[in-house]
Amino acid sequence: MITPVLPFFVYGTLRPGEPNHDRHLRGRTRREEPARLMGAVLYDGPGYPYAVEARAGVAHGELVTTLPEAYSRLLAELDRLEEYVPGDPSNLYDRVEREVVRPDGSTSRAWVYVAAPAVAARLHAHGTLVPGGDWHTRRPHRPR
């Protein structure tokens, strides 16, 4: 199966100003712009959020377009960071292709790491929702 080349929708520690942005994305992106993932909510995790697909809700983040020469290596790095292995039932996250919305209303297909089904079920039952779907706003002192 051929993996499509898509931008990434990031909503947690990969956002600008967060530690994983500097480690993985700094200097490897062509464009970073605000975006929203409709039909998803964010749950607070142990130092990072989980996006969980839901009928209603919105997750706020950035649409990140990588430099072409950095794409393949970055995709592999982000899969490792998110502990995502295609088809592995023990994944914490699944990498899925979803449509995200820019502030002007235009849309783009993007890779999104969402909570894997077992994790999503636990979060729905016992998790703490991030109010407003923006992980940055729930953190009182985020680094800049």
Quick description:
This is Gamma-glutamylcyclotransferase. With 144 residues, this protein is of the alpha+beta class. The chain has helices spanning 19-25, 71-81, 117-126, 135-138, and strands at 8-10, 29-44, 49-66, 93-101, 107-115.
Characteristic terms for this protein:
38% strand; 3-stranded antiparallel sheet; 144 residues; globular; 22% helix; alpha+beta; two-stranded antiparallel sheet; Hypothetical upf0131 protein ytfp
Give the secondary structure arrangement, pairings included.
Blueprint: E1 8-10, H1 19-25, E2 29-44, E3 49-66, H2 71-81, E4 93-101, E5 107-115, H3 117-126, H4 135-138
Antiparallel strand pairs: 1-3, 2-3, 4-5
Pfam family, one: GGACT
Domain Gamma-glutamylcyclotransferase AIG2-like: 8-136
InterPro entries: AIG2-like_dom (IPR009288), GGCT-like (IPR013024), GGCT-like_sf (IPR036568)
Please describe what this structure looks like.
The chain is α+β, with helices and mostly antiparallel strands. The protein has a single domain (8-138), classed as Gamma-glutamyl cyclotransferase-like (Hypothetical upf0131 protein ytfp, Roll). It is 22% helix and 38% strand. The chain contains four helices and five strands. The strands form two sheets. The chain has a three-stranded antiparallel beta sheet with strand order 1-3-2. A hairpin with a 4-residue loop joins strand 2 (29-44) and strand 3. The longest helix is centred in the middle third of the chain and has 11 residues, at 71-81. It is globular and about 40 Å long. Residues 8-136 form the Gamma-glutamylcyclotransferase AIG2-like domain. This is Gamma-glutamylcyclotransferase. InterPro entries: AIG2-like_dom, GGCT-like, GGCT-like_sf. It comes from Streptomyces brasiliensis.
